[in-house]
Amino acid sequence: MRPNSVKNRFLSGQPITNGWLSIPSSYAAEVVASQGFDAVTVDLQHGMMDFETAMAMLQAISITSATPMVRCTSMDAPQIMRLLDAGAYGIICPSIDTPELARAFVDACRYPPVGKRSFGPARGLLYGGPDYFEHANDHTLALAMIESKQAISELEAILDTPGLDGIYIGPNDLALSMGCKPGSETEGVVGDAIAQILRAARRRNLLCGIFCASAALARQRLDEGFHLVTPGNDANILGSSCKSRIAETLSESETTHQADITGY
Amino acid sequence: MRPNSVKNRFLSGQPITNGWLSIPSSYAAEVVASQGFDAVTVDLQHGMMDFETAMAMLQAISITSATPMVRCTSMDAPQIMRLLDAGAYGIICPSIDTPELARAFVDACRYPPVGKRSFGPARGLLYGGPDYFEHANDHTLALAMIESKQAISELEAILDTPGLDGIYIGPNDLALSMGCKPGSETEGVVGDAIAQILRAARRRNLLCGIFCASAALARQRLDEGFHLVTPGNDANILGSSCKSRIAETLSESETTHQADITGY
Amino acid sequence: MRPNSVKNRFLSGQPITNGWLSIPSSYAAEVVASQGFDAVTVDLQHGMMDFETAMAMLQAISITSATPMVRCTSMDAPQIMRLLDAGAYGIICPSIDTPELARAFVDACRYPPVGKRSFGPARGLLYGGPDYFEHANDHTLALAMIESKQAISELEAILDTPGLDGIYIGPNDLALSMGCKPGSETEGVVGDAIAQILRAARRRNLLCGIFCASAALARQRLDEGFHLVTPGNDANILGSSCKSRIAETLSESETTHQADITGY
Amino acid sequence: MRPNSVKNRFLSGQPITNGWLSIPSSYAAEVVASQGFDAVTVDLQHGMMDFETAMAMLQAISITSATPMVRCTSMDAPQIMRLLDAGAYGIICPSIDTPELARAFVDACRYPPVGKRSFGPARGLLYGGPDYFEHANDHTLALAMIESKQAISELEAILDTPGLDGIYIGPNDLALSMGCKPGSETEGVVGDAIAQILRAARRRNLLCGIFCASAALARQRLDEGFHLVTPGNDANILGSSCKSRIAETLSESETTHQADITGY
Amino acid sequence: MRPNSVKNRFLSGQPITNGWLSIPSSYAAEVVASQGFDAVTVDLQHGMMDFETAMAMLQAISITSATPMVRCTSMDAPQIMRLLDAGAYGIICPSIDTPELARAFVDACRYPPVGKRSFGPARGLLYGGPDYFEHANDHTLALAMIESKQAISELEAILDTPGLDGIYIGPNDLALSMGCKPGSETEGVVGDAIAQILRAARRRNLLCGIFCASAALARQRLDEGFHLVTPGNDANILGSSCKSRIAETLSESETTHQADITGY
Amino acid sequence: MRPNSVKNRFLSGQPITNGWLSIPSSYAAEVVASQGFDAVTVDLQHGMMDFETAMAMLQAISITSATPMVRCTSMDAPQIMRLLDAGAYGIICPSIDTPELARAFVDACRYPPVGKRSFGPARGLLYGGPDYFEHANDHTLALAMIESKQAISELEAILDTPGLDGIYIGPNDLALSMGCKPGSETEGVVGDAIAQILRAARRRNLLCGIFCASAALARQRLDEGFHLVTPGNDANILGSSCKSRIAETLSESETTHQADITGY
Predict the structure, then answer these.
(1) pLDDT at position B253, please?
(2) Which domains, from first to last, does chain C contain?
(3) Strand partners, C143
(4) Confidence check: pLDDT of A218 > 60
(5) CB count, 10 Å around CB of A156?
(6) Portion of chain C with pLDDT greater than 90, in percent
(7) Which segments of B120-227 are extended strands (E)?
(8) Shortest Cα distance from F87 to chain A (angstroms)?
(9) Is E242 near chain A, with CB under 8 Å?
(10) Which residue from A23, D127, D141, D203 has the highest number of Cβ atoms inside 10 Å of its Cβ?
């Protein structure tokens, strides 16, 4: 079976940069996945695509060296199984707020006897190889989102879930759940909570990932000990870059001496 | 009929920034069109979409204040008529190399007796309003791409085509046709040719547009007297911004030694 | 944030006409939304579209002055959050049969601390504006479908749910649940139940909406005190209008004197 | 091979009602095709769909007893061949203005040695049956649009084209080409031209079809001797019917004062 | 209402061959459905399509004499209702492990007062006919998948569920749940379990279906008393047939004397 | 730039097996491309997909080791350029009947100064690599279809076209053009013509490809000296394999009397 390079980078201590896709397009997915990310995640929770387009986007990522991952919409076992069948090598699952949810999440990601995944590997066979079934349980990452006060109150039990590969922090939902505003993740109670989650997860050798609003923050998170960072999503990057280009295009410059063209 | 703000900006001497779409997605289109561009062009020539998606992208642009335009694949009259039916307020047509092509292009964009556009306005009615047919000939821009040695050799005759609203320069194809490399547009024979086209078009009060590889170049082009500039396309902007984010995420920084997390 | 005109019409006592979309097409959506409806609802429960097409249809509605709304497939919190992210300004949720469901429904529609909506506004930001997050809880309508005997038995508690903006009656499911046939909504026990729901909801100043099989019934419902009425859905309107056109085309008429063309 | 019921109705002197599809949706197509039309035409010229959706719409029509037809975008042989491969049983081709175009059109519709259609029947085999190739030339209708002054000036030669099955009049383009306005088709020079075309085509036993803005006009056209009439297109029918429903919903009625509900 | 030929074949003791679709394409669906299968099932659990494409695939199947069926992703009542609205005449539901799930499954498939299906038949009306609502409960098949140890432990109670039309065995998931490997279904404990399920279901005159890895196994299953067999899925058939063609193309043959072409 | 393995196999004398895609699905494309073909061709002429789906199918092929190729609908330069932009590494162009068409075809495939391809490599850059522009002219195959009597009459001049990489024979269209039936390609005048084309092409060291109705014929063609063979298309392979499975499932067998299950 094709190895999971994200898992291997984690095991060998290399940082993992993760692209994030909300635009429903396999072309945009390939554009992003070709830039050097170690992983690229199709976001079904806040992205604008359905499963079928997500599958095509996983295909696009599969052309590149980036590992194809998905954020599912919720802890929805049939959906998670379909995404794995479609070739996802990692699932980031929102709102794993309890040990029971964590257990159900891992079960959805693993074939029996370890879990309860239904057999029918489909694209998994094509991307992973003919021995996909034998090794899928080992190569497919189950990353639980820790993003609520409730999750923090049950953090140790959640993280002790057998088979869980790692965690992924959603800083904005975590902030909201703690009575703070989105964007307040680098200090105060939210900052403390993130540090607490990171420590607890690292203690268990779990892969620790986090969404970041900027590359600067992503770099800082790597420095803090996170293994996987997502420096923004495609729509925000595209939009803000366009806005910058417009501003730069229209900006006055001292060197704008138009005299040489008045002769037209 | 809803006025064409690009035309109005041109008439009132205001610069026009133009977004450029190659990603086949109405969501990406709305993201780009919401950033402040005066016009947004769906590129069917080098973009990855078909007509049906282009129509949905024109819808997305129509939500915003940007004027929806299209670059067609070639001087293909039935295609141009369909794109106008789909609500495009401007057509940028590749390779208008002869006065005959220029005439055929204008004919495709105008209802009789001025031109030969077929009746069936479809989305044009929805976007333009119930009096679309009466005013479409006045409000729809026909912009001819000047991008070859042949076009330059017949430049005056092409630009004299009655009904032509303006020109749009494709610097890379122009360079290739002159035996130069893509990207060689700011100096030498290509630079001279662009200056010549601009002068000839401005002399006739034609709208002058050009594709630019960067915002800096777009600003320069405005300074040179171009009315409409396209500071890059969506896929390139998205890709290069992602690449920058990865580099910034992984860059070393002096402040990287954060004693407070070494305890993990 | 862009105001919710449906909410404003409700607050100012103006009737609200609502279009209903089951055809999976952004073009059909724009055709319907351009006719003067105050709101247009994409129906994911009995309509033939998925989320991704629904998003494109919300874009199409956004071009017009109609307020974009959605009927979700069921009380499915992750789905509802995605539809709000896609720019829906109102959610009509089927089968709110208990106060618990009503509470969960409102929670899905509101950001913390009021509810549990996850952060990631996506198209909401584009349609609503950059201050979307600050005001979304106020501008997004949560309308609970009351359409079963069970719901009526818990009506007062359901309607007392804090944050619920209004109700929407599904007359046919209500009839079925009461042992009656579809179409039996204007009299008998179903008619009585509808009147009871309307009274209870109006007493609390809740917005009252209802699906109607015809414009005549819609007019009657406005007369009865409903604030929002849906005079049929797109597929039924299209189908029945086509059938009428065929019948009229083929009908005999006294004035059909064919003598003048017998010379062909 | 499955017989062509439109051809058979024509041969037996029965009127043919034709639905017209511009909405890119196989569901809308099935809704329309289920209402009793004898034929349903997917309009690629002024409709909003591409080939692939057109194919799905031809599938939808194939479920019903209506004969699946297509209007192509123009006299474009490769496109026409693809549409026949996709299962169209009739092609309506715009702007057959010369005998040469008529000949090329027939060639595109027929396998050698009669014409030049390329072999690769695809869906034709599924819809038509395994003997499709042997009989396709006989069962597939080639209908030339006569819609310009030029076409009228060469009318006899166009209509004499061997293998042409019939004509279809586009009244609005004909009017425009004659210096008149859309909608001026029932009188004056346009009315005379239509009568002339009809007479010339009937004299040769060609199938005569025409687009009509309303059912009343369609009925009149049947009375005049047309064999096939199209009483409006889907988008217009849907839009105008919605507008009527809104008006009826909001209209004042004498019975509006309903004392029994004023107590709400 | 259009009769359900699968049900009729079952009642008259005729074997039922069932095609299985995982490729998201209405064209592929029509290709498969045209080969003579009595039923064709769109597989949403392990197939790569969403609801909207599934609807188009049901349309494609509806062109042929095969009965359109669906395997849903899970016991998800809103999804099942949508698929029935889209014209499915049979639902195969995964993992009916308890009598409660069986009851909920039947409820989702039946209109009140028998079940809880919501009213809004959509494509059901087009495919089934105008009296769809009156007869849908009788003509729509509810087939429960028995595919786990837990289901076997409650087999009698599950099979006693009123309104259940039949069962469908998923041999691979059954094997996994019993600690065996996929493909171990013809002997040992899995073989015994399948025989036990078949006996229990036949005793109640339930329709018995099963997925088979090959035609040989399908034939054996018919011999064993199964009523409906699925001899492989589309992707596997396509892939393995391509592989065979490549092997045959490249195979050495004794008759390959190339001397006669060396003169080229 | 990523090398073109088809070209390399040709240069090193290895046989090339080519898959053929008519089903519009990126999943089906990956299924086919994963079976070991050296090349896989998306067929836009007789296949059921548009450009946008073709692009996604090229992505799917790009995941595998097969070289992505396309058959365009006709000698349509803008279309060919778009397909190259979408990442096709080879174009098979129908009906190259004259040296002029051959020259235009090569021009469409090559950047200046060799040809006239427009600059805008899009997906080509992603699949080929950042130096795509520099090497695309060398790595992209232009294969002209020889499939008519006219082409044979100008065969030598067509094959002498500078820059042409090879030919591809369409045996059925060739047969039709010679007054024969489809399927008559292995003997008589059609067989002779194919042998003549092969000889003339091999003499010039052109890559020689041909479509084959079966693997047996493909093997024979390799023996005859063809370099690239297409052993059937996806839809035919899928359909015929399904038909075989049904037949085998329903066939009588001597072992059918299984006493042990008569007790059910």
Answers:
(1) 52
(2) 5-249 (3.20.20.60)
(3) C92, C166
(4) yes
(5) 12
(6) 95
(7) 141-146, 166-169, 207-212
(8) 11
(9) no
(10) A23
